[in-house]
């Protein structure tokens, strides 16, 4: 049976990239009848330094972001990772399955560790093994993610396959990535070769889901572009990453294809298109951010949702972990 898992790190405030690459897709697929498990991956977040008070706030705000984006905690399981110990327990097993060479090839490791790899945390290096555990501890068959996580998902498949092979079992499923539609990769507003990210030091590089209308309009107005106008078909954007990014965002926010958008706006200058994009972004994001603010007023309700979700998650994870220990040869 089909089961969906996806996670988001409480490593800062949510961005438009998280919304279009993750939250909006989750909400859009909610009524497909498939069991979905969504996790605030706080244990991933601490692979780079997080201030403890900010981590708590970001976790609750992330939960509010899920709900405000339309994910219903009655229909989907919503919880934070550290409340379900099975993730860390299975991750340890996977640390012994994954190979150093596999981890060293991960572009997220290279990007986030930067030049000083010696000084990066061991957890940052092992991140993909924990992510594999997040997914496989539920035997999830499908993982909707942005394109930036595709390589990690391939590693999850490699870990599942190697485990099955090493122990001579057919136990862990080979999970399918679900990556489709426009804007599976939203790029930085300052640099079309970098993805938009909540941990980017420059706030001007991203649109935060909690930005007000003025901030959104001004960030889009200042977004980097080239001097040309908009083409009338998608192939006219090929060597223009910044221009393509803005059109992609417009398409994703308005549920259109890039060609549909260009049929409408082709020939316009960016001075005319940017205010249109700003207005569209504000109209989509402001109802979500005001709902987030409302939810954040009652912390105890958010905490209760996370606790309830964690209990539901544990019911699925515990027998899968127990069976894994049995396969590996741990005496119980
Ligand atoms: P960090 O900078 O701390 O890694 P992030 O913004 O990359 O934060 P994650 O928590 O790593 O966010 O990812 C959460 C989800 O959002 C994942 O499904 C990921 O694929 C998606 N996502 C993140 N950034 C983008 C982006 N720029 N475009 C599309 N999807 C994205
Ligand atoms: Mg990321």
UniProtKB/TrEMBL annotation:
<feature type="binding site">
    <location>
        <position position="186"/>
    </location>
    <ligand>
        <name>ATP</name>
    </ligand>
</feature>
<dbReference type="InterPro" id="IPR002306">
    <property type="entry name" value="Trp-tRNA-ligase"/>
</dbReference>
<keyword id="KW-0067">ATP-binding</keyword>
<keyword id="KW-0030">Aminoacyl-tRNA synthetase</keyword>
<dbReference type="GO" id="GO:0004830">
    <property type="term" value="F:tryptophan-tRNA ligase activity"/>
</dbReference>
<feature type="short sequence motif" description="'HIGH' region">
    <location>
        <begin position="10"/>
        <end position="18"/>
    </location>
</feature>
<dbReference type="InterPro" id="IPR050203">
    <property type="entry name" value="Trp-tRNA_synthetase"/>
</dbReference>
<dbReference type="InterPro" id="IPR014729">
    <property type="entry name" value="Rossmann-like_a/b/a_fold"/>
</dbReference>
<feature type="binding site">
    <location>
        <begin position="195"/>
        <end position="199"/>
    </location>
    <ligand>
        <name>ATP</name>
    </ligand>
</feature>
<feature type="short sequence motif" description="'KMSKS' region">
    <location>
        <begin position="195"/>
        <end position="199"/>
    </location>
</feature>
<dbReference type="Pfam" id="PF00579">
    <property type="entry name" value="tRNA-synt_1b"/>
</dbReference>
<dbReference type="InterPro" id="IPR002305">
    <property type="entry name" value="aa-tRNA-synth_Ic"/>
</dbReference>
<comment type="similarity">
    <text>Belongs to the class-I aminoacyl-tRNA synthetase family.</text>
</comment>
<keyword id="KW-0963">Cytoplasm</keyword>
<comment type="function">
    <text>Catalyzes the attachment of tryptophan to tRNA(Trp).</text>
</comment>
<keyword id="KW-0648">Protein biosynthesis</keyword>
<dbReference type="GO" id="GO:0005829">
    <property type="term" value="C:cytosol"/>
</dbReference>
<feature type="binding site">
    <location>
        <begin position="17"/>
        <end position="18"/>
    </location>
    <ligand>
        <name>ATP</name>
    </ligand>
</feature>
<feature type="binding site">
    <location>
        <position position="134"/>
    </location>
    <ligand>
        <name>L-tryptophan</name>
    </ligand>
</feature>
<keyword id="KW-0547">Nucleotide-binding</keyword>
<dbReference type="InterPro" id="IPR024109">
    <property type="entry name" value="Trp-tRNA-ligase_bac-type"/>
</dbReference>
<dbReference type="GO" id="GO:0006436">
    <property type="term" value="P:tryptophanyl-tRNA aminoacylation"/>
</dbReference>
<keyword id="KW-0436">Ligase</keyword>
<dbReference type="InterPro" id="IPR001412">
    <property type="entry name" value="aa-tRNA-synth_I_CS"/>
</dbReference>
<comment type="subunit">
    <text>Homodimer.</text>
</comment>
<feature type="binding site">
    <location>
        <begin position="146"/>
        <end position="148"/>
    </location>
    <ligand>
        <name>ATP</name>
    </ligand>
</feature>
<dbReference type="GO" id="GO:0005524">
    <property type="term" value="F:ATP binding"/>
</dbReference>
<protein>
    <recommendedName>
        <fullName>Tryptophan--tRNA ligase</fullName>
        <ecNumber>6.1.1.2</ecNumber>
    </recommendedName>
</protein>
<feature type="binding site">
    <location>
        <begin position="9"/>
        <end position="11"/>
    </location>
    <ligand>
        <name>ATP</name>
    </ligand>
</feature>
């Amino acid at each position: 049976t089909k089961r969906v898992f996806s996670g988001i790190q409480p490593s800062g405030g949510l961005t438009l990239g998280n919304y279009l690459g993750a939250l909006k897709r989750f909400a859009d697929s909610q009524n497909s009848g498939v069991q979905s498990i969504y996790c605030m991956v706080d244990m991933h977040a601490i692979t780079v330094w997080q201030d403890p008070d900010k981590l708590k706030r970001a976790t609750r705000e992330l939960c509010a972001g899920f709900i405000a984006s339309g994910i219903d905690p009655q229909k989907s399981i919503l919880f934070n990772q550290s409340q379900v110990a099975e993730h860390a327990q299975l991750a340890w097993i996977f640390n012994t399955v994954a190979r150093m060479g596999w981890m060293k090839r991960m572009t997220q490791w290279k990007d986030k560790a930067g030049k000083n790899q010696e000084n990066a945390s061991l957890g940052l290096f092992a991140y993909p093994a924990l992510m594999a555990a997040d997914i496989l501890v539920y035997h999830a068959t499908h993982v909707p993610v942005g394109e930036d996580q595709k390589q990690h998902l391939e590693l999850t498949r490699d870990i599942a396959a190697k485990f099955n092979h090493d122990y001579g079992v057919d136990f862990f499923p080979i999970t399918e990535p679900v990556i489709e539609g426009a804007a599976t990769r939203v790029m930085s507003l300052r640099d079309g070769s970098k993805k938009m990210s909540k941990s980017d030091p420059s706030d001007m590089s991203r649109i935060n889901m909690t930005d007000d209308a003025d901030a959104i309009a001004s960030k889009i107005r200042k977004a980097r572009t080239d001097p040309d106008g908009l083409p009338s078909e998608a192939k006219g954007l090929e060597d223009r990453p910044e221009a393509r990014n803005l059109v992609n965002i417009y398409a994703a926010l308005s549920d259109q294809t890039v060609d549909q958008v260009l049929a409408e706006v082709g020939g316009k200058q960016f001075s005319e298109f940017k205010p249109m994009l700003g207005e569209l972004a504000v109209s989509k994001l402001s109802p979500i951010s005001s709902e987030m603010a409302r939810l954040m007023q009652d912390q105890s309700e958010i905490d209760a949702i996370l606790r309830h979700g964690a209990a539901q998650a544990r019911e699925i994870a515990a027998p899968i972990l127990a069976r894994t220990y049995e396969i590996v040869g741990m005496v119980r």
